[in-house]
Specification:
The chain has 760 residues and is of the alpha/beta class. The chain has 27 helices and 21 strands. Helix 5 runs parallel beside helix 8, helix 12 crosses helix 14 and helix 26 crosses helix 27.
């Protein structure tokens, strides 16, 4: 490479209009054939490459496009198909691939968890003492397709073996080194075939190098890449990291690879200091991640230009590649077509395509510096300054809110027991019920003004009543109103608070075909009017059983939004907490005194480095408590979290001081229960007893097994029985069937406990 180039790490799969999602769901529902599915996916894949070509990206990624998840792609490519799926070798069929992701009747899906500290979910590979075998060379297929169809010599993207194993389960950690070595032959074969096909540079993603890995692990990484470089010397490797600064900078830059990608957004301070202190090898290329791949604000290109100029003192421009800080998987496709945003907000945004424009502009200015070019950057940055100087961002004085309940849990628990008089092992759900096509259609028409407000509200009320009756018939103890009026658990709240804006098409992938449209926090957040009161009160008027008020917590609203970048996340979280407290109090004052404030994203926001954990957890817990503590002792506060290795944050979970916490555990086969064998949890808790992400209906034996395992380490008088997450994406029949089995399993467990108690 003899001039400054631009590169992209990965492109959004879903398309400008979520056409990828629609095709995927059409295939699952058997409305299109596998042949049509594959043809459509190829069309989208080539379209994405063509767009990047038109954006003048020098190094266009190929192979990162996926039918579901790139980690699942890697697992199936190397033959890591769990035995329960009955795969007998050879290329993994689509049916098996999707069964691993979604489950099939009689076979549970692979575990799904968060991709580092993002809201993207990956499918956890299961090693099962297998050795990797290259069943098909997917990067090669993608490379040849781009070359033959569009004459693009792409940059193949591959998940690195170290990160793949770090993200996997089902092996003895003591065998990690030998397992890593076992990947040498398959990576050698994969890379050799790419080199023979004409590939000159391949991107191998090793984001686990930014986590707290040991010196021994770093040596294993070095040994692996040293062997690969000997086996395939003709192919240049770009070792790519992102989401933080690398943990062993000196060892990383010593790896026998041609180029190293570092994140200068999330890992800016540490990475820049490492370069200043230790330098950078003259014979290597530095891939500089300077365009934020995870947020949607325009880059301050003058500052970025200054950063590159500063880096040029240590790494010549000719030895640099300009790129986003991470894959553009985490941002929407394009701002084009966003016609409803305020012009000041819209002009400050850059989605995926616009970030590629930023790269091209930055490269042009750096290669041909002049006063005129500097003026171009100044004009570009001026749109951000308009937002920064607006009244929406006027400094707001912090309000000091109560962050402790007036009585400790045990005293509250006794008062709440007297008030509610619930049976042992009370049953409940997490909040949402199936949102049918009719519900979504009515909301869409209402938003467009094609459906009268009274008609829409009557439609919502009829669904609330229907599901209150279903819950009563199922004999569920604590009910929910079903959240039929809500589009998304964060967007719905953002629409009712100040400081939030909403795109028309700013979708990003969360898991599988599930896409979310994160709100944009552009200004100060405050409470405007009651958010959930009307629907909750209506539901409670229909039944004598308690109905939970359902709110999304401050940390989750923060982590699942695109957040303004002129304040710290802590400051924004405290603004949201203050607003939510007023909503909690409006419910309590109206007689809704069982209130669930969900924080599924609390663990997700945990920094990747241990040294940063305490600071984050302290303010995250404080934000939750600020939103929930100023209530009566008899008001029962619930919360919900999604599974993601809670062992390391069990103390923070306790510190939330919620009266009841429900935790998603079913996909991990209740592995989380082991955390409570060594950590006493003395508050109400519900561990999800079946997986809602899969369409399969669990058997009573499965749920009973989870209950028995949980009750072996958790006190029955504090235990709740619930699904592991909301039921919004499930069908009505499967939901009713699964909940019926759940209730029956809970009743049998109650009876067994009673019999044991009476026999003592």
């Amino acid at each position: 490479m003899n001039s400054l180039k631009t590169s992209n790490l990965g492109y959004s799969r879903i398309g400008e209009n979520r056409e990828w999602k629609k095709t995927l769901e059409a295939y699952w529902s058997h409305t299109i054939t596998e042949e049509t599915f594959l043809q459509q996916m190829k069309k989208y894949r080539l379209h994405h490459l063509q767009k990047q070509l038109e954006k003048d990206v020098d190094l266009i990624p190929v192979g990162e496009f996926s039918y579901y998840d790139h980690v699942l792609d890697t697992a199936s490519m190397f033959g890591f198909v769990p035995k329960r799926f009955g795969h007998d070798g050879g290329t993994v069929p689509l049916a098996t691939y999707f069964a691993m992701a979604r489950g099939s009747q009689g076979t549970h899906a692979c575990e799904m968890t968060k991709w580092f500290d993002t809201n993207y979910h990956y499918i956890v590979p299961e090693i099962e003492n297998k050795k990797p075998v290259l069943l098909e060379n997917r990067p090669l297929q993608a490379f040849l397709e781009a070359k033959n169809e569009l004459n693009i010599t792409g940059k193949p993207v591959i998940l690195g073996p170290f990160t793949f194993l770090k993200l996997s389960k089902g092996y003895n950690t003591e065998s990690f080194g030998s397992l890593l070595i076992s990947f040498i032959p398959v990576y050698t074969q994969l890379l050799s075939e790419l080199a023979q096909a004409g590939a000159t540079l391949v991107q191998i993603d090793e984001p686990s190098l930014v986590t707290d890995i040991t010196t021994d692990e770093m040596e294993l990484v070095h040994d692996f890449y040293e062997e690969i470089s000997k086996q395939v010397p003709e192919l240049e490797i770009l070792l790519q990291t992102y989401f933080e600064a690398v943990s062993h900078y000196k060892q990383v830059i010593d790896l026998p690879v041609k180029a190293i990608g570092l994140d200068f957004v999330s890992g800016y301070e540490e990475n820049i200091q490492s370069i200043k202190k230790f330098g950078f090898p003259k014979d290597k290329i530095l891939a500089v991640g300077v365009i934020d791949g995870r947020n949607i604000w325009k880059n301050r290109l003058q500052e970025t230009n200054d950063l590159i100029t500063q880096l040029s003192k240590y790494v010549p421009l000719t030895n640099q590649i300009l790129q986003p800080s991470s894959s553009l998987l985490h941002v929407p496709v394009t701002v084009k077509g966003e016609s409803k945003l305020h012009s000041i907000v819209k002009d400050a945004l850059a989605f995926g395509d616009e970030k590629l424009d930023e790269l091209r502009l930055l490269r042009d200015v750096l290669l041909h510096p002049s006063p005129t070019k500097q003026n171009v950057l100044e004009r570009y940055d001026s749109t951000l300054k308009k937002l920064e100087q607006s009244t929406w961002r006027k400094k707001k004085e912090e309000t000091i809110l109560p962050s402790e309940r007036t009585k400790p849990f045990q005293e509250r628990y006794e008062l709440q027991n007297k008030k509610w008089n619930l049976p042992l092992l009370p049953t409940t759900t997490i909040g949402s019920f199936p949102q049918t096509k009719d519900i979504r259609k009515a909301r869409f028409q209402w938003r467009k003004g094609e459906l009268a407000n009274d008609t829409y509200e009557a439609h919502i009320k009829s669904n609330i009543e229907k599901w209150i009756r279903i819950q009563e018939e199922l004999d569920i103890d604590v009910l929910v109103h079903g959240e039929f009026e809500r589009n998304d658990m964060v967007e719905f709240f953002g629409e009712k608070l100040t400081g939030f804006a909403f795109s028309q098409n700013g979708w990003v992938q969360s898991y599988g075909s599930r896409c979310v449209k994160p709100p944009i926090i552009y200004g100060n957040v405050s409470f405007d009017q009651p958010i959930t009161l009307k629907e909750t009160l209506y539901a409670q008027s229909l039944t004598n059983r308690p109905v939970k008020g359902m709110l999304t917590g401050p940390v989750t609203i923060l982590n699942w939004s695109f957040v303004r970048n002129d304040l710290t996340h802590k400051e924004v979280a405290f603004q949201i907490a203050e607003a939510l407290l007023q909503e909690v109090q409006s419910l309590e004052n109206s007689g809704i005194t069982m209130i669930q404030v969900d924080e599924p994203a609390l663990r997700e926001g945990l920094p990747l480095k241990q040294k940063k954990h305490s600071y984050y957890l302290d303010w995250a817990v404080e934000a939750f408590k600020r939103s929930t503590s100023a209530v009566s002792d008899t008001t029962q506060i619930h919360t919900h979290m999604c599974y993601s290795d809670f062992n390391e944050i069990i103390d923070a979970i306790k510190a939330l001081d919620a009266d009841v916490i429900s935790i998603e555990t079913s996909r991990s086969h209740a592995e989380l229960i082991s955390a409570f064998e060594t950590n006493v949890y003395d508050k109400g808790i519900g561990l999800g007893v079946y997986d809602i992400h899969s369409p399969r209906v669990p058997s009573e034996e499965e749920i009973t097994s989870v209950l028995e395992r949980a009750l072996s380490v958790l006190p029955a008088n504090l235990f709740w029985v619930n699904p592991d997450c909301g039921l919004k994406t499930r069908g009505e029949q499967e939901t009713v069937a699964a909940l019926s089995i759940m209730v029956q399993a809970a009743k049998k467990a109650r009876q067994n406990i009673k019999q044991v108690s009476e026999s003592l």
